[in-house]
Amino acid sequence: MKQIEIIGTTVLFLLVGIGAPANARQEKQDEKAKPQKQEQQAKPERQQQAPAPKQQQQHQQQQAQAPKQQQQQRQQQQAQAPKQQQDNSAKQQQQQARGQQQQQQQRDNSTRQQQQAKGQQDQQRQQQRRDNSARQQQQAKGQQDQQQQQRDNSARQQQAKGQQNQQRQQQQRQQQAIVQQGQQRQQRQQQDNNRSAQRRSPEQVRVQQVAWQGDRAHSWQSEHRTWQQRGGYDGYRVPDDRFRSYYGQDHGFRIDVLPVLYVGGQRRFQYGGYWFGLLDPWPEYWSNDWYDNDDVYVDYYGDGYYLFNRRYPGDRIAISFYLN
């Protein structure tokens, strides 16, 4: 391109240099040819416009140089074409290399991300395995502790059961001893009462019968009252061990052999170390000598103490215990 510019500039200078003398000479010829001007005007327009010989020569030179210039331009373009192709090829190669680098970098990034994700998954699996192992160990330890606790509880229960059995056996032995003592005492008291009854005179027996008849009810169903109707039992309460030794349906006795007293219009008799009084009249349909021939017993029923007659099990007479 630079060569073409230099050649064009040179041709322009040549044309300017050639054109200036030609114009000067042309002016001189015009001055000489003024008289002939009229004649020249009569000539055809084609002759007036004909170029000067030097201008024709310059024009021919320019036309002759134009192909050379074009050829030079083509040669320069042809010379520059391989270089441009090489540059384009180098650029394409650079672009391809850059694209390959980017692809390789993307693959490397993808591989790195996959490796990181895999590493995280491996770490999570390892952590999960450790957690599962720790959980299993804790569960196994908890099961062992629970089994040990169950064994300890079973041993304590067996020990407590053994102690309860021992206590129960001891209580049973004590109760049996108390029952035996009570039975022995009752037998001795019964014997004493029998001897006392044998010593009673017929007059004493008649007086006692008269006294008992005074406590007989006219209509027991309407005259007697339960402890619930009386507002609850509020007298002396016999200790349980003493009560089991002398009272209850297993300890029957007869009143005729017992000490009997009247206190404040109330009949009382002594049995088992206590005095207790009859608060209700005895039913009118009982036999006249029930106190001599019927077995009776004292028991706690629902809300207080009552006297029961084995011959009439559905009836119960309210009684109250006294210490003396």
Key attributes of the depicted protein:
six-stranded antiparallel beta sheet
Structure notes:
- The chain is α+β, with helices and mostly antiparallel strands.
- Among the domains are: 1-27 and 53-78, no CATH class; 200-322, no CATH class.
- The protein has 8 helices and 6 strands.
- A 6-stranded antiparallel sheet has the order 1-2-3-6-5-4, with no helix packed on it.
- Strand 2 and strand 3 form a beta hairpin.
- Helix 1 (2-32) packs antiparallel against helix 4 and helix 4 crosses helix 7 (240-246).
- It is rod-shaped and about 210 Å long.
Structural class: alpha+beta
What is the terminal separation in angstroms? 156 Å
Mind describing the biggest β-sheet? 6 strands, antiparallel
What is the mean predicted local confidence, pLDDT?
Answer: 77
Q: What is the ordering of alpha helices and beta strands? A: HHHHHHHEEEHEEE
What oligomeric assembly is this protein in? Answer: single chain
Q: Measured on Cα atoms, how large is the radius of gyration?
A: 77 Å
In which range does the helix fraction lie? 55-70%
Major sheet: order of its strands?
1-2-3-6-5-4
In terms of DSSP E residues, the strand content is 5-15%
How does the SSE layout of this entry go?
Layout: H1 2-32, H2 37-42, H3 45-48, H4 53-199, H5 202-213, H6 220-223, H7 240-246, E1 260-263, E2 266-271, E3 274-278, H8 290-293, E4 296-301, E5 304-309, E6 312-322
Antiparallel strand pairs: 1-2, 2-3, 3-6, 4-5, 5-6
